[in-house]
Design brief:
With about 350 residues, the protein is of the alpha+beta class. Among the domains are: about 50-60 and about 245-345, Elongation Factor Tu (Ef-tu), domain 3, CATH 2.40.30.170; about 100-210, Orthogonal Bundle (Helix Hairpins), CATH 1.10.287. The protein is about 45% helix and about 25% strand. The chain contains four helices and 14 strands. The chain has a six-stranded antiparallel barrel. The chain has a four-stranded antiparallel sheet with strand order 2-9-7-4, with no helix packed on it. Helix 2 (about 95-150) packs antiparallel against helix 3. The chain is rod-shaped and about 170 Å long. It starts with 14 loop residues before the first helix and ends with a helix.
């Protein structure tokens, strides 16, 4: 069946013109989308600093650094990053030639003190045992002096000899008594030194605990963990323990801002697609350089002020050591508009 089409009929659409009109409409929509997208990009890029203050931050918590005062080598590790530990749980084991040298030094000092005490005991005993004999001889010389004084016929030479023997006897008695008293005093002093050295040696061995490294507090093991076989100098962290009950964000506030953040300001912590509400609780009186920020070609990274942010009650904080971004709106109106927009698009 053949149909006759009258192209002059205004109610019959022209197929070529219809396709051309549809293609033109698509081109105009794409062009308008590109133009308005570029305009929106510039408006958002240049207008964003006028609306809110934003900067990077790190989810952190109070941390305890576990280290050793000696040069050690890791011989065993029983935890991994993210492990939950309780007070007293064993983290690992180390061995330390330096600690063994310290113990050997204390043992050598104790041995020297023991030898010195033996010598003093011998001297004190000899002096005490010889004192009775020296006193008997002194009494004999004094008796001889009394007799020669009573006899007028003795010669001067004999008298001088008797007086000399009495003086030597007295000197011998005094020397023995002084030697015994001094030996006794030195023994008491050495006993005190030996007791103090023994206490310090016991403290060194107790603190080293045969190389066992235990957790001083309950928490989560951070990523900064020593590896098996690694040698560490004194004071180098073996592990870091974070307190998961006290989570906060250290916000590195940009230096370019229209208004300084203050304690009590409401902020939003952005973590992926999550938008977590919080509040500034402290402005730290110190500046620092954000570690994840790369320096530019013309200048180094600038130190920025740090604001501490606490999450509101009921919010679930991100994982510890996560990198987040913090936004603080300059006005409450913009903050309410942004919150409504977030609820409208379904972000949380």
């Amino acid at each position: 069946m053949n149909l006759m089409l009258n192209r002059l009929d205004p109610h019959v659409p022209d197929p070529v013109e219809s396709r051309r009109r549809a293609a033109g409409r698509l081109v105009r929509i794409a062009y308008a989308t590109i133009v308005f997208g570029v305009l929106a990009f510039f408006v958002i890029y240049f207008g964003r600093p006028l609306v809110y203050l934003g900067g990077p931050g790190v989810v952190s918590a109070p941390r305890y650094v576990v280290s050793s005062p000696y040069v050690v080598q890791i011989s065993q590790m029983k935890v991994t990053p993210g492990s939950v530990v309780a007070v007293g749980d064993e983290i690992g084991r180390v061995q330390s030639p330096q600690q063994e040298g310290v113990v050997a030094t204390y043992m050598r000092a104790l041995a020297e003190i023991a030898g010195r005490e033996a010598e003093l005991r011998v001297k004190a005993r000899v002096a005490k045992e010889s004192r009775e004999t020296a006193l008997a001889y002194l009494r004999l010389t004094e008796e001889a002096v009394k007799r020669i004084e009573a006899s007028p016929t003795t010669t001067v030479t004999f008298r001088v000899g008797i007086y000399r023997e009495r003086a030597l006897a007295r000197k011998n008695v005094v020397s023995l008594e002084a030697e015994a008293a001094e030996a006794t005093a030195q023994l008491a002093s050495l006993d005190e030194v030996r007791r103090e050295l023994r206490e310090r040696l016991d403290a060194v061995e107790r603190l080293f605990a045969e190389g066992r490294i235990t957790a001083p507090m309950a928490g989560v093991i951070s990523t900064g963990l020593a590896h098996l076989g690694q040698a560490l100098v004194a004071g180098t962290p073996i592990a870091e323990i974070l307190d998961p009950e006290d989570v906060f964000v250290d916000w590195y506030v940009p230096n370019e801002r229209f208004r300084d953040p203050r304690v009590g300001n409401d902020v939003f912590v952005l973590f992926g697609n999550r938008r977590i509400s919080g509040k500034i609780v402290q402005i730290l009186p110190v500046s620092d350089v954000y570690g994840a920020k790369q320096p530019t070609l013309t200048r180094d990274r600038a130190a920025t002020q740090i604001a501490r942010v606490r999450f509101n009650v009921g919010e679930s904080p991100p994982a510890l050591s996560s990198t987040v971004y913090v936004h603080m709106h300059y006005s409450d109106f913009v903050s309410r508009v942004a919150a409504r927009f977030v609820r409208l698009v379904g972000l949380h």
